[in-house]
TrEMBL record:
This is 8-amino-7-ketopelargonate synthase. Keywords: Acyltransferase, Biotin biosynthesis, Pyridoxal phosphate, Transferase. Catalyzes the decarboxylative condensation of pimeloyl-[acyl-carrier protein] and L-alanine to produce 8-amino-7-oxononanoate (AON), [acyl-carrier protein], and carbon dioxide. One of its GO terms (biological process) is biotin biosynthetic process. InterPro entries: Aminotrans_II_pyridoxalP_BS, Aminotransferase_I/II_large, AON_synthase_class-II, AONS_Archaea/Proteobacteria, PyrdxlP-dep_Trfase, PyrdxlP-dep_Trfase_major, PyrdxlP-dep_Trfase_small. It comes from Aneurinibacillus soli. PROSITE patterns: AA_TRANSFER_CLASS_2. Pfam families: Aminotran_1_2. Coiled coil: none annotated. Its cofactor is pyridoxal 5'-phosphate. Homodimer. Pathway: Cofactor biosynthesis; biotin biosynthesis. NCBIfam families: bioF. The modification N6-(pyridoxal phosphate)lysine is found at K231.
Length: 384
């Protein structure tokens, strides 16, 4: 082992000693394992209509787009998808990226420049954090969902040129909903725009599944709604819906849009079908909500400490990182896959099992999962 490799090993060993080493786990359709942590909330990623839509597009256009949107990779399909997203999100236009991660990098770094100020919730997704880091704007991190802290930071930045408040709609590791009415009010008072990351809220919240702004009736007062096509929508890619002036600007300045091969035809067709199914089959969303309520109250009755909320993301707090990993392993032995989430993804001492329910879970599957949670809790004696 040379010095380079030794340095890598040293860092890995330290991480492992703290119980924080990350390893990959293969999750496939295994009849003996039921996944209780996927973001495929509505089950669309394995739906037959989705597969058909993707297969048809592949037959017609092939497996790869062969270029970026601004060169040879712009198909009618891409433009149709953007129109579909815009009307779903009730915005003038939309622009699609290759992932939600790349969308956040591109949107934030392009829109927010030197002399501007970004206000970002402390629990925002890593892609928002990285987008802020890549931007030359000053970034203020406000305490999670703390409106007093947000207002203090807005006051400190009154002389900034452009101001943007950015928040997850549903927080991915806590399952809580952002206090959007209060955020919008502050934004209007201080002349800021609001950007909501609806990765987990699209297909889940709102009368038509359009997300957090629709849930609160605030679609007209949120300037930027970004999201991913890879969670409830069941495909892959990222997007932002906004005024046409914003999307035109991003087509010119968002580097992760410009210098990236466009999404492959199969993925685009699946994404379009996913949005169509979200709109035409609201019963999926209804079942998802019922399953979430059932799972949440069941876990509460077993005596687990949960983060309050009513979304399909249920954070079961274990505390210690090693114990959370142990818990997750025991769950797996019971045929339930729900990984432990540890620092740095979540705060020290708040390691957890991130449970999510799907519209396609049956009540008997949920009951079985609850029985396993209870059994393991008794076995290892976690104090809730
Ligand atoms: C998953 C996620 C993203 C990234 O989306 P991808 O399409 O997976 O790259 C961005 N923001 C939030 C809040 C997410 O949960």
């Amino acid at each position: 082992m040379d010095a380079f490799e030794a340095a890598l090993r040293e860092t890995l060993d330290k991480t492992e000693a703290k119980g924080l080493l990350r390893t990959l786990r293969v999750v496939e359709e295994d009849k003996n394992i039921r996944v209780f942590s996927t973001n495929n909330y509505l089950g669309l990623a394995t739906d037959e209509k989705m597969k058909e839509a993707a297969a048809q597009a592949i037959q017609l256009y092939g497996t790869g787009s062969g270029g970026s949107r601004l060169t040879t990779g712009n198909f009618t399909l891409h433009e149709q998808l953007e129109k579909r997203i815009a009307s779903f999100k009730r915005k003038e236009d939309a622009i699609v990226f290759s992932s939600g991660y790349l969308a956040n990098l591109g949107i934030i770094s392009a829109l927010m420049r030197e002399g501007d100020a970004i206000f970002s919730d402390a629990l925002n997704h890593a892609s928002i954090i990285d987008g802020c880091r890549m931007s030359k704007a000053q970034t203020f991190i406000y305490q999670h969902a703390n409106m007093q802290d947000l207002e203090e930071k807005l006051q400190r930045a009154v002389h900034s040129k452009k101001k943007l408040i950015v928040t997850d709609g549903i927080f991915s590791m806590d399952g809580t909903i952002a206090p959007l009415p209060e955020i919008v009010e502050l934004a209007e008072r201080y002349g800021a725009w609001v950007m909501v990351d609806d990765a987990h809220a699209t297909g889940v919240l709102g009368k038509t599944g359009a997300g957090t702004a629709e849930h609160f009736g605030l679609s007209d007062r949120v300037q930027l709604t970004m999201g991913t096509l890879s969670k409830a929508i069941g495909a892959e890619g990222g997007y932002v819906a906004a005024a046409a002036s914003v999307t035109n600007y991003l087509r010119n300045y968002a580097r992760s849009f410009i210098f990236q091969t466009s999404l492959s035809p199969g993925v685009v067709a699946a994404a379009m079908k996913g949005i169509e199914l979200i709109q035409s089959e609201p019963e999926r969303r209804q079942t998802l909500q019922e399953n979430a309520t059932y799972m949440r109250s069941g876990l509460q009755q077993c005596g687990f400490t949960l983060i309050e909320g009513n979304t399909p993301i249920i954070a079961v707090i274990i505390g210690d990182a090693k114990q959370a990993v142990h818990f997750s392993r025991l769950l797996e032995e019971e045929g339930i896959f729900a990984p432990a989430i540890r620092p740095p993804t979540v705060a020290e001492g708040s390691s957890r099992i991130r449970v999510t329910v799907m519209a396609t879970h049956t009540i008997s599957e949920i009951k079985k999962a609850l029985a396993s949670f209870e059994k393991i809790r008794k076995e290892i004696g976690i104090i809730g």
